Amino acid sequence: MARKGVHKPAPTNLASLIRGLYGRVARQLKVDPSYVSRVARGERQSDVIEASLERELKRIMSLVSSHNGTGRKLAKRSHAKGKKKRVM
Known about the structure:
This protein is an all-alpha fold and 88 residues long. The protein has a domain at 14-67.
């Protein structure tokens, strides 16, 4: 019996970042996006395209993790654990 796990919703701009993946890689390598797609699906082989896809995916994941998937950097909290007194 399969367990139901708790799924976190995908970051809002993750789809946008992934959507242009093949096009960006194709542009960088001056090849057709459909060829990049075929390499990604395993229908064709190209070490150069595979390496470029991997780099681009790592870049996307670092963007998502450092921006919390919102396209904006996370705000750093500057307060201590205890309560601060408000200065008026």
